[in-house]
Design brief:
- By secondary structure, this protein is mainly alpha-helical.
- It has a domain of 255 residues: MFS general substrate transporter like domains (Growth Hormone, Chain: A), CATH 1.20.1250.20.
- Helices cover 69% and strands 1% of the residues.
- The protein has 14 helices and 2 strands.
- A two-stranded antiparallel sheet has the order 1-2.
- The longest helix is centred in the middle third of the chain and has 33 residues.
Length: 373
């Protein structure tokens, strides 16, 4: 994903990047649909069936199919030709359009250390992406055991029902991925990202049992077989509340993913972004590694109420961070429209001489990109 995100950032202009990132994320969303459906298709295969040296059951078949798709991907990239738009677009940054290739190369050389980059905005994007992945990892890790505890489902029933829920949620996510760029065009990337974070907070809050009216009759299961004392005090979770939480997380997660990646890319500017996209995805991978460990410990020690309310509070930090740095989350200076007649090299030289003092003025000049400033 890091390589794909970096390529999309380099192959698209700023005004089209949101749509491209949305299409990339939507393709991943399709995986969230077909993945669970494939799991459901093999749920009837009991352990113990063997074909040659392969053991075929409802756990191994999805893994074999995933390996097969990886091989298909390798063949798809065999005829792939790379294309970068940045260097061609850089020559058109000046409004007179007379920047030569030497000017472009000199500009890129002068910007190797990139004094224009707003490192605080970069850190904010990394933090928001990290908290978003933590929220998702909590949902993924505890979905099956939590449903088994609350609703008395067996392991196979939980696999089937959660597979259906995840497949429907994946379809919802694809729809959100598709409409996210249009909403961002109308309301701004930052506003849509902020709305997505709020939806994730609501989702986490709904997973905490509040003692609302419920037809859930499986709570006595706690006293007979469940080993944790907190289950005697936490009220049952209504099924409708669980499903509503799934709806909100499948709406909020795509908004945050697309918008945080898009803002991160535009903050970095018209330079190669492979390292930075790798760092962004590394933050996501760290969240997916740490999240399940912390989640399991909190769940077994304190129960779902404290777990999900704590996760909601942690995700809420993203709201405070975004609001505190709202005006810093803007497009890189070199991708804004300069004054008429100014060349790219002169813009870079002027900014380097000023030591970056023009950033505050650049925030007000970014209205061509974010109309809601």
């Amino acid at each position: 994903m890091a390589v794909c995100s970096a390529y999309v950032a380099g192959a698209t202009p700023v005004e089209e990047r949101g749509k491209a990132m949305g299409a990339l994320a939507a393709s991943g969303g399709l995986g969230f649909i077909f993945g669970p459906l494939l799991g459901i298709a093999f749920v009837k295969l009991k352990p113990g069936y063997q074909e040659g040296f392969l053991e075929l059951d409802y756990l191994t078949m999805p893994a074999y199919l995933a390996a097969f798709f990886c091989v298909v991907n390798m063949f798809c990239f065999s005829g792939f030709r790379e294309f970068r738009i940045n260097e061609k677009r850089v020559s058109t940054v000046s409004t007179n359009g007379n920047a030569s290739q030497d000017d472009v190369k000199e500009a890129i050389k002068q910007s190797a250390s990139d004094p224009d980059r707003d490192n605080l905005a970069v850190l904010v994007c990394l933090f928001v992406y990290f908290t978003n992945m933590v929220s998702l990892s909590v949902f993924e890790t505890m979905g099956t055991p939590y449903a088994m505890y609350e609703f008395g489902w067996t392991a196979q029933e939980a696999e089937l029902y959660n597979g259906i829920i995840t497949g429907v949620g994946g379809l919802e996510s694809v729809m959100v991925f598709i409409i996210a760029p249009a909403l961002a065009q109308k309301h701004g990337d930052r506003a849509v990202m902020l709305a997505g974070v709020c939806l994730c907070i609501i989702s986490q809050g709904l997973l905490a049992p509040w003692g609302l009216p419920s037809d859930n009759q499986y709570q006595p299961y706690c006293f007979e077989e469940f080993p944790y004392k907190w289950c005697r005090f936490d009220p049952p979770l209504p099924l409708w509340q669980y499903l509503l939480s799934c709806f909100f997380v499948n709406a909020g997660f795509p908004f945050v993913t697309v918008m945080s990646t898009t803002i991160f890319s535009t903050v970095l500017g018209p330079f190669p972004q492979g390292f930075w996209m790798g760092l962004l995805n590394a933050c996501g991978s760290l969240a997916r590694a740490v999240g399940p460990i912390v989640t399991t410990q909190l769940y077994t020690s304190y129960g779902p109420t404290k777990l999900y309310l704590g996760t909601a509070a942690f995700t809420g930090l993203s709201v405070l961070v975004i609001l505190a740095t709202y005006r810093r989350l803007i497009v890189h200076k070199l991708q804004r429209i300069p004054e008429a007649g100014s060349s790219l090299v002169s813009v870079l030289s002027t900014h380097n001489d000023q030591g970056g003092s023009s950033r505050a003025q650049g925030d007000t000049n970014a209205q061509g990109v974010y109309e809601d400033d």
